Structures are given as structure tokens and as C-alpha cells.
Amino acid sequence: MISGPTEAVEFIGIGKSFGSCRAVDHVTGNFSAGRIHAILGENGAGKSTLMKLLFGLYGPTEGKIRVKGTERHWRSPADSMDAGLGMVQQHFTLVESLSVIDNIMLGAEACSAFGVLDRERAIQLLEAELPSADLSLDWNRQVSDLSVGEKQKVEILKLIARKADILVLDEPTAVLAPQEISGLFSILKELKKQGRTVFVITHKLGEVFEHCDTWFVLRAGRSIASGEVHQTKVEDVVRAMVGTNLPPLSDLSKRNPGEARLKFENVSVKKTSHVLNNLSFEVRSGEIVGIAGIDGSGQAEVVAASLGLVSFSGEITVLGDVIPGSQSSDAAAKRIERLRNAGLALVSEDRHTQSLWMNESVQLNTGLGVDSTKSFFKNGLLQSKVWTTAVSNWLKSFDVRFPSLEISVDRLSGGNQQKLIFARELLGRTPRLIVVHQPTRGVDFLSIRLIYERLLEAREGGAAILVISSELDELMTLSDRIFVLCAGRKTGEFIRATDTARGAFDRTAIGAAMTSASPMTASEQSSRKQTEVSL
Amino acid sequence: MNFVTKNISWFVTLGAVLLGFSAALLLAAVLGESPSLVATVLIRGAVGSATSLGYSLYYATPLIFTGLAVSWALKAGLFNIGAEGQMTLGGVAMAAVGILASGLPAAVAWPLALFAGFGAGASAGWIVAWFKVRRGVHEVLGSILMNFVSYGIAGLFILNIFRNPSSQNPETLPIGPGFELSQLSLIGGTSPLNVAFVFALVFAAVADFVIRRTRLGMNLRWSGGAPEFARRSGLSIDRETMRALAISGGLAGLAGASVVLGYMHKAREGFSAGAGFIGIAVALLGRGNPWGVIVAALLFGGLQKGSLDLDIDTDKISRDLAGVIQALIVMAVAARPVIEAGLRTWLERRKREAT
User: Fold this and answer.
1) Do B228 and A19 touch (CB under 8 A)?
2) Of A187, A474, B98, B147, whose CB is crowded by the most CB atoms within 10 A?
3) A110 shares its domain with A181
4) Residue A41: helix, strand or coil by DSSP?
5) CA distance A245 to A217
6) Do A159 and A264 belong together in one domain?
């Protein structure tokens, strides 16, 4: 293959092994300059590792990297930065207490004589690089006052200030509301017009087909397929990512809500400020209610308050049981045990700490917390046979892949861990109320599909289901009703437009509600408006 | 090879012990004493005769109890460093019932004394737990402070309430004959070894069973291993904390049995002789496993006995070398995770290169 100067990046048989694990396996691919490339793949497919190889954070085990036609062997990330590469990590690396311009200058400060910082010059230099006014911010604002989308902008500006012309963004939209996402991509398109090359690591296909130019799929460390976005069908990309065709979701039956199984009435939770503010909603038998919102808008408190793990004002009723606004931790524990035995299934947000005992066996983890109703103990003595038989069946029915029951649960993949949790929660009891928080974070497509099916089955079976997620697509797929939390307030409520059409929701309206009610100061209000105008 | 990989933690622990000994012998050499002589004296002193062996087992007995006590709390993710005070209180309580009810026959007296010892230690543990649960006082702080309180209370009983007026020593009146534990003469020799050693083994076996095979044990470990998960499943972490520290304290409270009931037949000021603190090292070396605790306690008991002869049989070093060895072993054990990780990588690489 002839490499012209238009190729920004070329991978030639590049590979990286960690111990016996081949994270990236002889990947070959060309990426032309001045375009937005989507790097796609499931968790653990090697996307991040590949980009870290490009960026010099790892040295390759074999193969070559060419950047702008020249073969490169980075000794450190500093090397690759000098050559015009830059990466925005998923977790921002900003100093919250410094201003925007100080963060941008940090590490490459513009100084006048005697090392005095020259912010004016830094701003001038930066503004000369900017493709359009969309990217400019109030340079003197403190970073801690910025929204998540604006912080991300600062990260991008840092790279531009260092004259990066190949930018890598790792899962940039995971933390953004829908409007912020299109804002981000309009910025990326401006950068593209300047001739810069952008790599976006993602697993959200919607964004790829709307905004990116090419796609490149990795699976199990190998390059599987690639192509031009406008010449491709979504299904082809999905098949490349998953390795097989995804079965279609079963049809939705007509919504037929029964009794209220979870009810919030004017619930407020106050820490230093209101984390939940006068929230009222109910979840009825036979329906799926979704809570949308940016992470940290009070979702975790909805779960904690339902369990009685935080103090609150107002009234919460769970499965007919009124939860006291404040209670001793012993009383809370007794009530949780009673509710769980009465059919409260719970899949918590952080599965590693809240839903699993990480260095214990698969067998133990699948039976924990449901043992009292399942006679896993007789007079306090463990009945291992009963336990083993029960959990084996549950795991089989949720298609959990595990080498042996004795293996530590942290050796399973994220998808298998999550399926194990669902198996325990849905089969270990007769679920009457199911509360799931981030049900598919870090979970592969096939497992997601299975989880969705099981939730829809439970809905058919008359369970009341509350789904809390930051993935709007997920909520629109599953929910009968969606309400939006923003800064602890309910800022919108949406019902599926028709009874049986899946996903019949107004995405734009939901997105608007997600960013509408944050308690902002006047200056923040005005700058937020600016951002919105620029979108 | 597979056997090694599977039990790598135990091998590394064994390595830590050997490392501790080697370093101590090296120290002896630096001080001008022949390492082989020191090793011989230590080993002969510990297991050289029936009497020596009896003493080693006698010294190991309280260490098994305190080691179990610390391990029990560790299972719940709690660090009880108050075993010393709990042991002291337990021993005083045993002496107290032995003095107050001196006429009882052994069949009633032994269980009563053990019950009293367990109860006193458990109360001390419970107080630490109460402050942790209700007032947020970290159990390390609470239990170390509780040691001083325990010393004070013990002193009150030994030096005032039950003081033996006809003795020159700071000690209580003698306990009733029914309370005296029988000597164990199975191995011969003349040592203070008594049935408390058997009690210790039984308690270790029971503890192991409870931890592995019962709901009590599972909840104990769950509350320590995954507290957030346990809480969301309806387990009261507070209740588990109270229970764990109380049982831990109770086990430590039994540690005085072999000394108070089996040997001195009274409580003397300072009878615990640091067994509560050495119990921490025993628990770490035994990796919180009751059987491991027994082995570690036997090792440290033997070391304690063997080192006594160092004073007599060597010129340049004293019994304090035992303390140095203990400290070196504990340090080597503390470094275990690092060594283990390194060793694992090395083993894997070798395996890969072999294939």
C-alpha cells in the first residue's frame, strides 16, 4: 500500500500483549487526515489500548506506527505530543481551582521576562489557532464553575494550544447530555475543517452515523472491519462488533399499569444542598419507568432513599411499606431485608462495591442476600448442595459464562458479572419491584440484549420496574414513561407516544429537560445561554 | 507447579518465616555469635525435650486464643488490637469467679470460669464496637485505648478487691481447687502445659467451622468483605460489627485460662505478658485462618521458649533476639503482597516460556 501524505496515521501489524493476554493483535489500518474516525468495539476489544499505542503511553510488542508518513517509535507521550498528537482522557485532568486559561497554559506556560506569566499573550496565541468562535470560553472563569461539556472543551483547547493536529477522544460523550453531544461534534467538525484529524473512541453507533466520516471496528484485539460511514448500514457495523447478528427485541405489549409499588411524595434529600428536591413519582405494576438525567443529578439518592439508607423528608412507600425519613441503621437493615424478601430486586449503580463481593466465588455471589428465602441454611448451617444446585440453574438461565463456580467473580467480564447479578436478583426472589441503576454500563451487546429481554419479561409478569440510566437510548427502548432529573428536581415527564411503538419519545425535549433546572448563578446562566446558542 | 501456584500465599508466608529467621541469624553473626550455635540453641530449647516441648506448647496456648481473636475481627474487616486488655480482663474475671465460688467442683467450675473469661473479654470488645458504631470512633483507636482502661480495672481487682494480703507479689487470692485446670502429662516432662491447650485447639476448630459453614460466619465475612453490597441486601453492618468485636474480645478473654487457671491458680499483675500483642502477629502470619493461627502460635511459642536459653548458652546475644525474629517475620509477612505479585508474574512467565 502506498502511503501518501494524506494518511495521518497508519498502523502496520501492530500488537500489544500484557502477560499472556493479547490486548491488540496485529492491527492494520489507515486513517486519512482531516477526517473524524470512529474507533468502535465492545469493552475490552482493545480500542483504548490501540489509541494508547498511538499516543506512546504503551510501547508496542510488535508492528509499526506511521504518523504523517513517518515511522515513529515514541519513547514517551511527550514525544508524540511534540509530533502533534493529543489525547483527551475519559476522566478530565483539569485543576479545578485554576482559571480556564491557566489550565490551558499549564505545562506550556507563556512567560515574559523573569518567568512572569503572560496570560494576554497566551490568549492571543490560542485565539489565533481557534477555528471559530464556538470554541472560545470566558478565559478567566474558574474551571470548577464550568459544566461538564465546557470542561471537555477546555481539554480540547489544551490540545489545540499545543498545536495538536491529531486528536484522540476516549468515550467523549459518556458524560454529556444530548445537546452537549451535538455541541461537541460541531466543534470536532470545525477542527476537521482546519485539516486536523480526530479519533473518537466510542460504542454509541448513533453518534458515529450522525457525525463521523469513517469507522473502524476492533474485536478481541483484532481489526475486524472498517469503512466509510456514508456507505455503511448500522447492522453491518453491529455485526462486526458483536460477531453475530443481534436478535431483535420482542414486541412491546400494551401498557397496562396496576397498583403503585414504589411511590415518592414530595421527597427531599438535603446534604450541603438539595440533592433531591420535592420529588414525586410512582412506579406501577406492569410498567417500566425510566429516570433520565446527567450523572449525579440525584439518581443515586433515589435508590438510597427508597432503601431508607439516607434521611429524607416527604413520604416514600415501597411495596406498601412506608419508609421512615430517618431511622437507625439496624432498623433500616431489617426493613431492607423484609423488602428484599418481599420481592424488591435491586441492581445497583456500582456493581463492584454495591452488588458483588469481588474476590469471592461465583457461587457465593449468586446466592448472597437471597439465602433466607431459599433455605440455603438450615438452623444456621450451610446447605452447600441446595445452594450449588439453585445458583447453577439461575446462572444457566441467564447464560452466564464462567469456568467454574469456585472461581472468583472478579475474573468474569463485565457482561457476565452483570448477568450474574440480574440472575440473582430476578430468579432468587419473585420480583415485584425491580430497581436497576445503570443496568448495562460496561456490558457487551449480547448481554445487554438478554438483560433487556428479561426486564421486558418481568414487565409482562406484572413487576414494577424503575430503570435509572444515563444512556437515553436505553431508557427510550425500555420505558413506558420517562421522567428527567436535573439537580435533584423533576424537570420533565414523558409518556411513550403510542402504546406499542418502542422508543416513541421526544429526544430533544428530554435532552432539554436534562440541562434545564440546574440552580445556576446569573453569570453561569448567561454563559450557559451562550453555549446553547452556539449549539 | 499447579500446587505451588494455587497455594502461593502459604509458600510466601513460609518464605517470610525463613527470611525472618535468616535475617536474625545474620544479625547474630554480625554480633559475633555463630549462627549455627544460635539455631541449635533455639531449636533445642523449643523442642529438645519433653519438658521443653511442653513449655513451648504452654506458651503457644494464649497465643492461639489471641491469634483467633484478632483473626475473627479481621474477617469482618476490623482490626482489634485490644486483645491484650481483653485477655487481662478475662483472666481477672476467671480468677474472680474462682475466688468467689471457690467450693465448686470442676465440672461446674471450668465452664463457669471460661464463661466469665469470655464474657469479660466480650464486654471490652463490645464497648469498642459501641463507640465505633454510635460515635464513629475507629476500632483501632478504641481498642488500644481500651487496653489502658482494662489494665486499670484489672489493677483495681488484683491489687485491691481480691488482693492476697499474705503475699509479697501483686496478685490475687488463690482460686478454688475445682477451678484449677488439669495438667497435660501426655508428653511427659515437667511443664505447666494444661488442658487449656486442648481448649484452644477446640476453639480453633469451632471457629473454622463457624466461619466456613454457618450463616453467622458468612455474614461476618460479608460485612467485612463487601459492606456496601451487604447493606443493600439487608445486613446490618452495625450489628455485625458489634457481634464481631464482642466475639473477638471474648476469644481474647479466654487467653488467660492456661496461665490463670492452669498454672498460677491466681491472677498476677501483668500475667498476659504481651500475648495480646503477639496475637496480632500470629493472626497476620496465620493469614486469618484458624489452622494457620495454630501453626503460627506454635512457632511463636517455641521461639519464646527457645530464646530463653540464649541468655545462658550464648555469650553475646540474649533472649531479646526472639523479639527481633518476631519483628522480622512480621515485616516479611507484611511485604507478602508485593512478593506474591512478583512471584506470580515470574511463575507465569516461566510457564509461558516453557510452552
Assistant:
1) no
2) B98
3) yes
4) coil
5) 15
6) no
Scanning B76-138, the segments in alpha helix (DSSP H) are: 83-100, 106-135
Tell me: do A421 and A433 sit in the same domain: no
The model's pTM is 0.83
Which phi and psi (to 5°) does residue B54 adopt? -60, -45
Q: Is the pLDDT of residue A525 over 70?
A: no
Interface probe for B, chosen from A329, A338, A437 (most Cβ of B below 10 Å), is A329
Give the model's pLDDT for residue A533. Answer: 39
The whole-number pLDDT of residue B314 equals 84
Q: Is residue A134 part of a domain?
A: yes
Choose among A19, A359, A381: nearest Cβ to B214. Answer: A381
In a domain, A533, yes or no: no
Mutation target vs B (from A338, A381, A425; most B CBs, 10 A cutoff):
A381
Are A295 and A169 found together in one domain? Answer: no
3-state SS assignment for residue B315: coil
- The answer as to whether B4 is a domain residue is no
Enclosing H/E stretch for A13: strand A7-18
Residues ≥6 apart with Cβ < 8 Å to A62: A13, A14, A15, A26
**CB contacts, 8 Å: A346 with chain B:** 232
Q: Distance of CA A278 to CAs A221, A313, B334, Å?
A: 48, 9, 51
Q: How many domains does chain B have?
A: 1
Of B228, B233, B352, the CB nearest to A368: B233
pLDDT of residue B322: 80
Strand order in the sheet with A7-18: A21-32, A7-18, A62-67, A70-72
Residue (of A57, A68, A3) closest to A34 by Cα position: A68
Residues A292 and A337 in one domain: yes
Same domain, A12 and A97: yes
Q: What is the pLDDT of residues B11-35, one digit of tens each?
A: 888 888 888 888 888 988 998 888 8
d(CA A199, CA A178): 20
Pick the last residue of a domain from A184, A215, A242: A242
Q: What's the pLDDT at B65?
A: 98
Per-residue pLDDT tens over the stretch B86-112: 999 999 999 999 999 999 999 999 999
- Which residues in chain B have Cβ-Cβ distances shorter than 8 Å to A343? none
Q: Is residue A252 part of a domain?
A: no
From A360's Cα to the closest Cα of chain B, the distance in A is 9
Averaged pLDDT for residues A146-150: 84
Residues A226 and A305 occupy one common structural domain: no
Give a yes or no: residue B51 inside a domain: no
User: In this structure, what DSSP letter does residue B76 have?
Assistant: T
Domain extent at residue A76: 7-242
Q: Which residue has the cell 513460609?
A: B14
H-type helices in A292-413, by residue range? 299-307, 329-341, 362-367, 384-397
A64-123: pLDDT as tens digits: 999 988 888 888 888 888 888 988 887 888 998 999 988 988 877 777 767 787 888 888
Q: Has residue B38 been placed in a domain? A: no
Whether A104 is covered by a domain: the verdict is yes
* Domain end point (choices A191, A210, A242): A242
DSSP H or E segment with residue A54: helix A47-55
Domain with B145, as residue range(s), is 64-298
Q: How confident is the model at residue A527 (pLDDT cuts 50, 70, 90)?
A: very low
Residue A371 pLDDT level (bands cut at 50, 70, 90): confident
Per cent of chain B over pLDDT 70 is 98
Same domain for A435 and A408? no
Burial of A83: CB neighbours in 10 Å, binned 0-12, 13-18, 19+ = middle
pLDDT at B283 over 80: yes
Question: What ipTM was predicted for this assembly?
Answer: 0.85
Number of folded domains that form chain A: 3
On the CB side of B253, how many CA atoms lie within 13 Å of its CA?
A: 28
B17 within some domain: no
pLDDT per position as a tens digit, A429-438: 999 999 999 9
